[in-house]
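If you are new to this repository, start here. Below is one unmodified record pulled from the training split, so you can see the exact layout before writing a loader.
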Amino acid sequence: MRLTILGSGTLFPVKNRSNPGYLLDIGNETVLLDGGSGTLRQIARANRSIWEISRVFYSHFHIDHTNELIPLLFAYKYSIPDSSKSPEIIIHAHQDFSNCYNKLTELYEDWILNENHPYSFQKIEVGSTNFKKYKLIAYPTLHTPQSIIYRFEDEEGKTFVYTGDTDYCKELIEASIDTDLLLIECSFPDTIDVKGHMIPKKISKLLREVKPRQIILTHIYPMNDDGTLLERINCPSGIKISIAEDLQVIEI
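And here is the target side for that same chain:
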């Protein structure tokens, strides 16, 4: 597996962190995890192509995680495909996203309807889903009623967990145990404990519980991005910890 950080930031417009978005190369697929404003440009900056993407997985419906859906479909219709084009794009999310998906596709109609390169929505159920060369386990989490944590397992036994936005909860612990790479939000400092989000002391508590081999912190708000974030986390020895940076590539 290989992870490319497209955006490690939040809705706040800052120079060094784009809205959340990640490419995961797994099995014989490239999937997009979330995609807020600027995701398409970040894909280009990473020397990747939108035509590589076969699936999009949304962790929840907030604008900073989903805003690039219509630009993505618009780009598929009017740009020239390259040799890496997947025959179809499948959009995955909680079943409640179907309402949003139907309204958006109805609103933009001919601007995004694409007979040559179709797209569709498929809901994600809590539990395991087997794809051709990997397994996905979906967990509900404490953020919005539709929020999902994704745990990917490839044929070699490597595991990757993307939490999306989440608070500390039993599902987060269950999803994160014994994983090779945990990509987790750490939005705010301990002095700003916002419900539905992680802060350094919650990260420290989680690490004592689940002990991933590697953890990368993402979804960093400016007030938590002062250069001291790692110092404010009590990380057990043997765990590699770092802060996500836009356009970073990690082999799992």
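Two things worth knowing about this chain: The helical segments are 39-45, 63-66, 69-78, 97-108, 170-176, 200-210. The chain is about 20% helix and 30% strand.
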